[in-house]
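Supplementary notes (optional reading)

For those who missed the lab, this is the record we used. Protein: Transposase Tc1-like domain-containing protein. Length: 184 residues.
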Amino acid sequence: MGKKKVSDNVKWQIVGLLKGRGKTQQEIAELVGVSQKCVSSIKKKHESTGQVCDLRRSGRPRKLNFRDESYIFREIRKNPTLSYKNLAVDFNAKFSNFKVSKATIRRLLIKKGLESHTGVRKPLLTAKDRIKRYKWCTQRLNWTFNDWVRSKFDSSLKITRVIFSDESNFEVFNRKSRVIVKRF
């Protein structure tokens, strides 16, 4: 079991009953419905600070203020393919009063709702490219051997008008051409 949260109204009620001096801490605890330790803690807090609300908790101060966060968010929205590392380098170069790591930027963007995704690959041939290829092929449909090869200077020296290449690059796990994009 954890601690039960006691509202400020109940705490002020406990302080009022303690000031009345008609009841003991145990009787007040039973009357209000809290533990005797809770009544004792509220009494000590009220005597030392004059308040019953919880004090602000200590912790590490935030590194980035609202303007810094807005700048980072704007930059990543301008260029979604920018890496966390490059964004951190850019930010640190622009604002030299403190340094921000790529992990801080990553946490900030995740908090804002942006996550990393693999970008959609562009098709190798668009509809326009396919139409151009089809037209090129239909224009050369009835070409003869001499149309494909023409002579220049000397009939023994044959120079081709069209060069075909059968070289292709195939990679099974091509991870270098993958683009990471930040989006909602």
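If you only remember one thing from this example: The first strand starts at residue 115 and ends at 118.
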